[in-house]
């Protein structure tokens, strides 16, 4: 069976629509969940145990594959759809389904009770800032602050754990990029739906079974610098490309946006340090840390709470690096505080300005934007509390 047209560079024997429908037939037991807009993730632990995630909470379903062989057949077809091959010698599959949903599968013997599969749903409808405010993922004041930071070309890293809403937040923040700017997007697997007109989408490619034809994030990043980008957006930083991005940030490419896996703002910089070290560029650690502190301006932390809801927890400014103490200098602009767990299972919380005025305020005003009044009011209260009576 040939690869479908868009994935197989036009060599398909079978029309793409027929191939897609055939592939979905193999996934028939979970097809209702692939079409349910309330489902964000589908987790298959072998043929007889299938969970779905709705509103951040996991639910065991009654869905079953008829046998392990039926599930393996579905995976082989999914691999063929993206031009890859899976077997005992190649037991890990990263791919996409026809609707764009991201699939990760680990086959036996690496997953003895498997195959173990996770499908992250792809939603054609992008979560807007207004909808995130409606979900209480962030507040109107936090959104206005982020709008100012993006418009003023601050370099922003969105950090969080798996399934915390990093991609949704990045999509939402892209709506703050001024119109008329050329945005180049680099991803491992296409997920971002930037809310801009002039967007160039680039996608990395793994090597073929013979180890040929790979195009890495780093390859694309270096090429991107010659595409006259106004903004560079990297879907997720995972390795040595971190240093390339940081060096671009410190050499005049402002307004970069990216995501990284990290639990707290300070952890984000430590993670980026580690990934910079994966680069083939040798650099003294202090010099690397100074570049990180200079290149990255803002950390936006998102998290999935105990009640399953995804929320923004910190907006933090990176103000420098203290060489003597070996620590990054950070200051929180917004922090989420937590209350009690309510009877309906939701966790009380509030995202509030800390009263800190960012060091980058002058850059915001140079770009004709400003912070919301609530930030200045919080600063006045903070000053009054700290003043001697």
Named at the architecture level, the CATH assignment of the largest domain is 3-Layer(aba) Sandwich
In helices, the fraction of residues equals 25-40%
* Total helical segments: 13
Mean pLDDT: 89
User: Which topology of the largest domain does CATH recognise?
Assistant: Rossmann fold
- Based on CA inertia axes, which overall geometry fits? globular
Number of domains: 2
What's the gyration radius in Å? Answer: 23 Å
Topology order in helix (H) and strand (E) letters:
HHHEEEHEEEHHEHEEHEHEHHEEEEHH
Characterize the main sheet: 9 strands, mixed
Distance between the termini: 80 Å
As a percent range, the share of strand residues is 15-25%
State the CATH class of the largest domain: Alpha Beta
Q: Got a strand count?
A: 15
Unreliable spans: 1-12
From the structure provided, what is the oligomeric state, counting identical versus distinct chains? Answer: single chain
Give the topology, please.
Blueprint: H1 5-8, H2 16-26, H3 31-34, E1 39-45, E2 50-54, E3 57-60, H4 68-81, E4 92-96, E5 102-106, E6 116-120, H5 129-134, H6 140-151, E7 156-160, H7 166-174, E8 183-187, E9 199-203, H8 217-224, E10 231-234, H9 241-249, E11 257-261, H10 265-276, H11 285-295, E12 298-304, E13 310-322, E14 327-341, E15 347-353, H12 361-366, H13 373-386
Parallel strand pairs: 7-11, 7-12, 8-9, 8-10, 10-11
Antiparallel strand pairs: 1-2, 1-6, 2-3, 4-5, 5-6, 12-13, 13-14, 14-15
């Amino acid at each position: 069976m040939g690869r479908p047209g868009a994935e197989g560079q036009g060599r398909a024997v079978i029309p793409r629509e027929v191939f897609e429908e055939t592939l979905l037939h193999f996934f028939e037991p979970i097809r209702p969940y692939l079409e349910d807009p309330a489902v964000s993730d589908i987790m298959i632990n072998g043929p007889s145990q299938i969970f779905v995630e709705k509103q951040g909470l996991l639910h065991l379903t009654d869905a079953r594959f008829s046998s392990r062989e039926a599930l393996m057949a579905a995976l082989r077809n999914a691999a063929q759809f993206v031009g890859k091959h899976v077997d005992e010698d190649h037991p890990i599959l990263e791919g996409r389904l026809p609707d764009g949903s991201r699939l990760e599968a680990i086959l036996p013997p690496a997953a003895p009770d498997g195959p173990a599969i996770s499908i992250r749903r792809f939603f054609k409808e992008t979560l807007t800032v207004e909808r995130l405010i409606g979900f209480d993922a962030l507040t109107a004041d936090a959104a206005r602050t982020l709008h100012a930071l993006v418009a003023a070309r601050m370099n922003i890293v969105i950090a969080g754990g798996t399934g915390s809403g990093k991609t949704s937040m990045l999509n939402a923040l892209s709506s703050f990029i001024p119109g008329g700017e050329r945005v180049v997007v680099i991803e491992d697997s296409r997920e971002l739906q930037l809310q801009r007109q002039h967007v160039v989408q680039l996608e990395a490619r793994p090597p073929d079974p013979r180890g040929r034809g790979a195009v890495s994030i780093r390859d694309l990043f270096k090429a991107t610098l010659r595409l006259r980008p106004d903004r560079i957006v990297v879907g997720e930083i995972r390795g040595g490309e971190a240093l390339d991005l940081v060096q671009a940030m410190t050499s005049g490419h402002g307004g970069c946006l990216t995501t990284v896996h990290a639990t707290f703002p300070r952890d984000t910089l430590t993670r980026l340090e580690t990934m910079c070290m994966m680069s083939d560029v040798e650099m003294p650690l202090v010099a690397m840390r100074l570049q990180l502190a200079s290149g990255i301006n803002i950390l936006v932390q998102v998290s999935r709470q105990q009640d399953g809801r995804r929320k923004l927890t910190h907006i933090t400014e990176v103000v420098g690096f203290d060489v003597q103490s070996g620590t990054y200098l950070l200051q929180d602009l917004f922090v989420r505080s937590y209350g009690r767990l309510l009877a309906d299972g939701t966790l009380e919380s509030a995202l509030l300005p800390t009263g800190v005025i960012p060091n980058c305020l002058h850059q915001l005003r140079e770009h004709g934007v400003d912070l919301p009044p609530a930030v200045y009011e919080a600063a006045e209260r903070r000053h009054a509390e700290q003043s001697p009576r």
